[in-house]
Amino acid sequence: MHLKLGQLEAVIISSSKAAQEVLKTHELTFSQRPLVLAVQVMSFGQASIAFAPYGDFWKELRKICVFELLSAKRVQSFRSIREEEVGNLVESISSVSQQGVAINFSEKCFSLTNGIVSRAAFGKKCKDQKEFTSLLEEAIKLAGGFDIPDLFPSLRFLGYVTGKIPAMKRIRNKLGKILESIISDHMTKRSEDLIASRTTTGIDKAEEEEEEDFVDVLLKLQESNKLEFNFTSDQIKDVIMDIFSSGSETSATTIEWTISELMRNPRVMKKAQAEVRQVALEGKKNRIEEADVQKMDYLKSVVKETLRLHPPTPLLPREARERCQISGYELPLKSKFDFEFIPFGAGRRICPGIAFGVTMIELALSQLLCHFDWKLAKGIKPEEVDMTETFGVTCRRKSDLHLIATPRFRLLNESE
Q: Which GO terms describe its cellular component (predicted)?
């Protein structure tokens, strides 16, 4: 479907055949993403892995993400963080559930994923965690709104008239100060560790740290001078912001939508809980460990169906780098393309953090389904659950999900 959006040409890819042509046959032609206003204004060093122009610089950024930050080994190294944070979530819900009051499940989801990503990125939750999270949410809202300059590039000045660009710059500057402080603290600690290592052994063992967070890895790359470009602190900030916006927001949204769909479908909920609890019984324990999730085929199918119904980032278009033909139609240079369903992207632009995000989602859901029975607050019936979506970078619920949790430990403890 061809659309004229303002001054831009847009094409909706809604068939598997057309998608195959775009993502396989002409993959290189469509390896670009349009640079939207929010990215231009809120970027620190134009190093967003999601939106950086296709080329040598983007390839290096992707290598950093795939081989250094989000490799299978690195994702596995954060296992204890995920299990600890999910365990804390279960405990916090348990303490409230004893009183029989409803919880804001949406807030719990975002608190969980922010905690996990913060510890993976910074080694611990930063001292300005509450402010950082609030600013991040505000930045995502600003980035997801309708911006006239994205459809009418010649009217960029309207971004100032509406106050959108000044608001974006204000958020960027505040986030920049927090990230600058975190990077500075990491640099100081790395220097102290290096001196201590050389003083005690005479050998530089700073490279042998068993656990490194994302900032440590990025600083090590910056110091190594092995990259084909000068890796600046501003570009490190962009990579960190990408990880937060892509890892925390999308994972929380998927957990939230999965439980929403299960609340609307009690039969599916019971089947998913039965599978999870059976795995727990077989292991003779009252909790689910990350390795146990691999036995939960039905839960994995539920997550996939949720991603089909509610892709967390539904609007990640591609841009044609040159003229080409798709399904016999001639498409002009810089045409914008959007896909009906590709939750993690595909081809060269596929999300490098799939394993990091999905692992977090599946572990959280398995624990929540294992430990609690759930019912809707305020006497709402399953068929009455509000499933309205909001328009933005991520496809979130319009209204928060409020649920009542009932602890379900008795069945599990009987097997011990």
A: membrane
The enclosing H or E element of 131 equals helix 129-144
Q: What is the pLDDT of residue 13?
A: 75
CATH topology of domain 2-413: Cytochrome p450 (1.10.630)
C-alpha triplet 133, 137, 140: angle, nearest 5°: 140
| Residue 326: φ, ψ to 5° | -125, 120
Q: What CA–CA distance (Å, rounded) separates 36 from 144?
A: 10
Say how far apart CA 389 and CA 386 lie, in whole Å.
9
Residues 6 or more apart in contact with residue 150 via CB below 8 angstroms:
34, 36, 37
Question: Angle at the Cα of 404 (from 374 to 262), degrees rounded to 5?
Answer: 35
Map tokens 């859901």 to a residue.
365
**Which tokens in the block code for residue 371?**
């430990």
* Cα gap 99→64, rounded to integer Å: 47
d(CA 296, CA 201): 48
Q: Which two tokens stand for residue 25?
A: 């046959």
More confident residue, 302 or 327: 302
Of the two residues 309 and 267, the one the predictor is more confident about is 267
Q: Is the pLDDT of residue 74 over 80?
A: yes
User: Residue 217 in contact with residue 27, Cβ under 8 Å?
Assistant: no
Q: Are strands 336-339 and 8-13 parallel, antiparallel or unpaired?
A: parallel
Nearest to 269 by CA among 279, 277, 261, 278: 261
